[in-house]
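For this section, I looked closely at a protein sequence along with its fold in token form, which I now present.
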Amino acid sequence: MIINDAGIYYYQKSKRRKRRKFPIVFFIIFLVLAWVGYVIYDHFLSRPKEIAGVTASQLLSNITPTPKKQTENRLGDVVRETLKGTKGSYGIIILNLRTGEYYFQNESRSYEAASLYKLWVMATAFDQIKNGRLREADVLSQDLDVLRMKFNIATPSGEMNDEEEKDEENIISYTVKDALTQMITISDNNAALLLSERVRLANVAYFLEKQGFISSSLGTNNAGPFTTPLEIALFLKKLYEGKLVDGASSKKMLDLLRWQKLNNKIPKYLPENLFIAHKTGELDEFNHDVGIVFTPSGDYIIVILSQSNISSRYLVEEKIAILSRDIYKYFSTNDR
């Protein structure tokens, strides 16, 4: 067989082309596999529905009398009756701090925290105030566009219309004290961003770790903050006992939560003369309200986290309000 120079050239050129194609094909396959692996990790592994973190025994410790087993009280019947026919997922913790009576439902399930993450920012700020790294009179200022870019937020959002002090150059300014008040009482997102920038999210993450809240996280670029009913309940219990940062700081944080102005859920159908220290959270299909209700017959922790169709947001808020009312009635009529 005779192959001329042109044939040899064509053969060698074709061979080189094939060799060049192989690295490209392998690179494309690698990218596809990497993307599939990331999707699997992000959706199924990085945020499991049930996370081993705070335990029920931690929450129920140091309560006198010894809490009764959940099966030995009728509180669960009240919750189940109120939620009968309700769609979606509800994570619930009810704990009477005087009698020890309690009810748990989906207590270790992971939920998007929405604005509940502001509780962690608040506690971190008070920890830094206590340690002299921050003062309530310190003035925080930043351009809103810079803040939103830094925290990957495209547009302003909040659970009430923000009424921050800003000038014509879009600069937002608050004292630390005012930022804390705005962040908690009206869930002002811009105040929360200012504080988060100042205290640093790494310190908030360290606060969670130090407190043992290992099932709670500030999230990633692809997922927002998340938490569990148990860890939110333990946060509130430590606050109630004066063990979050210290006694004086815990009292100030409780006072901020008492001044809450978003009262369409837990407080809605409760007597107006009650002290209720609570924080709401709303984001897409997630709708929460958590707090401590102070009553003459005994104080109790109430944590209600929910996930449901966003079109039913009002119905979810109303269900939370009705559940809060029914729990209050139960404890009031079963005062022992």
Confidence is low (pLDDT under 50) at residues 38-51, 155-164. DSSP finds eleven helices and nine strands in the chain.
